[in-house]
Amino acid sequence: MNKGEELQGNMHMHVYTVKLDPRTKIYLLLLVNAAVFLSPSFQFELILMAIIFSLCFLMGMFSFSLKMMLGYGLILGVHLVSEMFLSGAWELMFVSFTMFIRKIFPCVVMGGLLVGTTKINEFMTALGKIRISKKVIIPLAVMLRYFPMIGEDWRYIKDAMKLRGISPSIIGFLKNPVQTVECIYVPLLMAASKIADELSVASIARGIENPKERSCFQHVSFQFSDSIVMFIFTFFVFGGVYIC
Asked: How far is CA 166 from CA 74, 192, 211, in A?
């Protein structure tokens, strides 16, 4: 088993309460993007995040959900403190930054849910069933393997640099910016380029460009849970715009 398969397998070791079709997850990701654009109020945003986090828990992404909830709470805290205690240019800078992060946060969480709970073979089979061109499917499939492998290399580089007393945190960057870039971010960029080439070659070697119809061991189809989740998200997004 190669590195990509091992990482992909580790990512899917979740206890599923709800299992969704890959096409449903893509639809939800697009819908959340529309919800962020149409968001009429802060209450709408909070309810949207609550629904997304609930779905993450139901799909077994417990650790990911808790980390994202803490991150979202931190962003909200910075936003509220900035409005209460800052003024002028400083308030504008911090409030604008936190507003930007809040707007993209739902999309980031949904994207993480898609990557973390979708197997490559199921993803390709699902998109093939709706006659999506392989020119679209192949880059998306490579992307799903790319991010987990980048994350793994990032952890290896970070652990190695900690042994040398170099921290990848913001404080560490401010203390030693040149050393941090040279020892952490440059190796990460080199690893990212190498991983992209390796994934492309491995995918071609495994016949990803085969024009024949793709088969899959798992049964990929819409279930009742897909209908329920799609209805809840759709009703909230388009109904909530008018209610909130």
From this structure: 25, 20, 49
